[in-house]
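Quick log. Single chain, no ligands specified.
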Amino acid sequence: MHRSETPEGKYASKHPPGTRVAPEVESALRENLQDGTISCAAAHRIASRLDVPPSVVGVGIDLLDAGLVRCQLGLFGYTPRKKAVVPADSVSPELEAQIRDKLVDGVLPCAEAWSIADGSGIPRMKVAAACEALSVRVKPCQLGAF
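-> predicted structure:
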């Protein structure tokens, strides 16, 4: 279930009682929340600035029962449609080979999609569009949204 499909107020329940994040993570998240949401890009900036894994920031987002929006791969968090990415009209053999080479149990981890994009100098959403065209699912999310 995508975070955007989880019933409101239920994100924190994904974690065992007593789960906490460092105060600086919570503080940074609170400073960046807008209308109870935070963008994927802002969450990743926090992780980078605080030198913590994105998954830690994702737990913090959950514990604040905040929504995660504008996935950098375009997979969720866009209105009025949930996703912004559309399948590519065509996928180069090189890009397809890179994607298929990074599959783990038949899916492409988000971090690997980013790595392909960043290493190839192409937009991250273009990798996601190729995945859509190839019927390759992207998961898990680095922030834990899916």
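The first strand starts at residue 37 and ends at 39.
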